[in-house]
Amino acid sequence: MSVEERRAHLIEAAIGLAEKKGVAGVTTRDVAQAAGVSLGVVHYCFENKDALMTELVKALSMELRDSVDADETVWQDAGSGKEALQRLVRAGLELMWLNIEATPERQLLTYETTTYALREGEQTPARIAIAREQYTFNDSTVADILDHAREATSTQWTAPVPTLSRFTLNVIDGAVLRWLVDNDSEAVREQLDLLSGMLASYSTA
């Protein structure tokens, strides 16, 4: 394996372990054993557990980004104007939701990595960077969706895209956490309908 392939293999092993036992319970030794490599290989690829956890949250975020790009037909012949924008944003959110719905264990893991970073950050401030990296990457994913939708429908946002992206991500975060509790996918889709309508209200043709 190349170094990048080895890193990807170790990240996937870490995700599998963290899904079963939580982030706090995972050690680099555990990851080495799960991946079938020596502990030295893990430390060659990642300086420490924090570095591995940072790449883990990036990998989880990248899966969400890839899910939105999974169906290119959504972005073709979208039409123009605010109604078209609303439909397109809703379609992008649906692609993201389908990925979330299919991977509940990974969604729970995203919350665990955040709380792990915040809790451990009290004693090790550098670990706060894990949570910040996670949210920065997710913000950029949502911002890309909004920008793509704007371009495809010949519209303009009337509020700053970073503000809209942060708001969107906050709503999705809450919706997913509630869904992990009550497993009510229909309620989530109703909320995504409302969200896409609210976002479209901050646009102009």
Automatic annotation (TrEMBL):
It comes from the Bacteria. SUPFAM superfamilies: Homeodomain-like (SSF46689), Tetracyclin repressor-like, C-terminal domain (SSF48498). Pfam families: TetR_N. Residues 4-64 form the HTH tetR-type domain. Keywords: DNA-binding, Transcription, Transcription regulation. Residues 27-46 bind DNA. This is TetR/AcrR family transcriptional regulator. It comes from Nocardia aurea. The lineage of its organism: Bacteria, Bacillati, Actinomycetota, Actinomycetes, Mycobacteriales.
